[in-house]
Amino acid sequence: MTVTNVASAGGVPDVGGLWTVLAAGDKLQAPSIEYGKLSPTLIVLGVAALGVLIEAFAPRKSRYGAQLSVSLLGLAAAFAAVIGLAASGAGTTRAQIAGMGALAVDGPALFLQGTLLLVGIVGVVTFAERRLEPSAAGSRVDAFAAQPASVPGGEGERQAVKAGWTTTEVFPLLMFAIGGMLLFPAANDLLLLFVALEVFSLPLYLLCALARRRRLLSQEAAVKYFLLGAFSSAFLLFGTALLYGYAGTVGYSGIARVVSGSDAVSDPVLAQTAGNDALLLIGGALVVMGLLFKVGAVPFHMWTPDVYQGAPTPVTGFMAAATKVAAFGALLRLLYVVLPGLSWDWRPVMWGVAILTMLAGAVVAITQTDVKRLLAYSSIAHAGFLLAGVIATSKSGVSSVLFYLAAYSFVTLGAFAVVTLVRDAGGEATHLSKWAGLGRRSPLLAAVFAIFLLAFAGIPLTSGFAGKFAVFKAAAEGGAGALVVVGVIASAIAAFFYLRVIVLMFFSEPQADGPSVAVPSVMTTSAIAVGVVVTVVLGVAPQYFLDLAGHAGVFVR
Amino acid sequence: MSPVNYVYLAALLFTIGATGVLIRRNAIVVFMCIELMLNAANLTLVAFSRMHGNLDGQIMAFFVMVVAAAEVVVGLAIIVMLYRSRHSASVDDASLMKL
């Protein structure tokens, strides 16, 4: 930070640097912020704040339209800003550290921010779907509770439903979450990493609790997600504190220099703490643990199935896609920029985590009977495949993970959007037995879901195959051949239950009291269409996008 | 007294907090244990800040306080909501979703 830089440059005594500097008559420099480089995040957070104002001042009738248009415009503007930055070379030749060392503006950050913004646009669109629920009081309602504060089944809820209220606060909450996620993979010091983690987690905890149907389940999911999420962020924070103690700084590059021991240390205190490997190893392990929780890797995956099942399905889709993108970005940057000097220590551990994650996710998914839980365990297995790319510790490892994340997130969004359409009297029919014979009843929807399942399974000509191939190739080249073998076995196990769902949809008799397929508005239709198009394009002609990820594979230090 | 002792104290507090999260059953108490863990991290930060003689750790402690306050707002809202619909804040009772 500025203060300490000035202090050390002035050669003043070490303790209480700020006061000594000011007494000596120096000027405290204002930080210089590159607003242009930070514009994607600033736009999104500004729009989120604007959304709060709309909630406060706009009349209830006009909020939905205002929130929806403001959110979409903001995300589109932020995406344009990311494209502008990438076109000016900020992702490759002119990559730099911005915001006084707090943020990196480089290839991986811009690629993931672009992905997150597109995921966010699709997320907003699925949040805005108002054709599926029966209308109340003449106004159409969405998948979110009429009044989340009211007791489920109580008088307050009845009145709110009767009045046709909706929770338009979901749009600002979503925008705050996206804002935090944009910061997360770009964070270049541990303080911003922690703050960004909380900025995107807190809105997600709330969004999980807002389902219109099955509210007890939704509230339970929110409590579990919140308590476990806060628990894991406390571990991340304590790890941060230990790493700060080890290196005397929270900046990534500063810690990396102390880890590698490249600088001669003159400060006796720093020489003492930097010689203490326990601080480094425990601190690094705790921070990685916090990130693996967000990723949903075994053994930190316990929250995933419950939260995915209980949360409103549009939220689940957004969360499954975007959290994974943001958290893997942060994990990559931490392991590749801060702890490369420690790779002999973390690689064996990550090997174990990756193998456990792939196998546990694939094996437990076989026993699932609920579509949302099935997709949750499949997301755990995919976290394992992504970890194989992380372990490669090479440039192709980074770019393959970037490509996989982009491919996976649109498949996930599309799959959960399909889940919102299969409904019976009680809302979404998520039990797998109800999906039997869906292919006879509505062939188009079943075919679309089959495409997504094939992409999850990694069948050629879908994006899942291109992603998996890139990740496994990078892992094999990085000396993790055994991991690739385990990955292929896990893929085969996973393919079994994906195909089982396809067989169930197309080759079994439909039940008499089976669910009906709701006809969505243009919102969900376009979300599913985007999912299908991205899945097929990335599967049939992945080269352009692989190149794009390949160019974006270098972290700025 | 050497600042190192405060780091040991913080590690002890963090362990007590983590143990509490794992063994206590009331959601409010679990949440208080998480706050204890955050404050243990704060104590570590200021102790190391004193040792290293720079302000990064102290500034970070301020940020942690703000974040913890925001977390209390969200967390208590969710826990109170759970209590109002179930008349129980026990994390064991919240078990509608099982494998």
Automatic annotation (TrEMBL), chain B:
This is NADH-quinone oxidoreductase subunit K. InterPro entries: NADH_UbQ_OxRdtase_chain4L/K, NUOK/Mnh_C1-like. It is a multi-pass membrane protein. It catalyses: a quinone + NADH + 5 H(+)(in) = a quinol + NAD(+) + 4 H(+)(out). GO terms for molecular function: NADH dehydrogenase (quinone) (non-electrogenic) activity; quinone binding. Belongs to the complex I subunit 4L family. The gene is nuoK. NDH-1 shuttles electrons from NADH, via FMN and iron-sulfur (Fe-S) centers, to quinones in the respiratory chain. The immediate electron acceptor for the enzyme in this species is believed to be a menaquinone. Couples the redox reaction to proton translocation (for every two electrons transferred, four hydrogen ions are translocated across the cytoplasmic membrane), and thus conserves the redox energy in a proton gradient.
